[in-house]
Amino acid sequence: MHEETAAMLDHARAALPESGAHGFDHTGRVVRLCETIGAREGADIAILIPAALFHDIARPLEEETGVPHEEEGARMAESYLRSARYPEDCIPGIVHAIRAHRYSSGIAPGTLEARVLSDADNLDAMGAVGIARTFMQAGEQGRGIADATAHFHDKLLNLRDRMYTRTGRRIAEERHAHLVAFLDALDGEMGGRILQDV
Length: 198
Known about the structure:
68% helix
């Protein structure tokens, strides 16, 4: 692993819990998805991988500060990268990708790297991992199955249609099918209507 990337990895790991719905394990999966999608789409890895490593770095601070984690994370990443003397021409692209990655931020990803990061982050909310993370988050917040299934309908089932890259869309089709099949099975086991129009 490149020395700069190893240092960034350590920095991100120190800022995040090891596991949880948005722990370092989520960041690791997003980085791997970015590597896969970025290679196929021709993204600049020198921008994409730091953005992926730092995309959730401020999430643990969001609840206490009220500052959206994508904004504070972009600021923290910029500060770190400048102090580490990362190539200056890469920093604006990294900052933009972090600011634009969040589903609800309202900032359109204006670069290929930002689109890849957005796709990777959303893909980790889909499929089997997305199902596990949804119930983990519900548990972390003291909520139950009904709240988790509401999240599927409010967000997760919409993600397939929010992919920006061809590679992201291909992966999303399979993961979306897993979400639908799971909700169908859960509906049958719970004896109630969980699966709405998808």
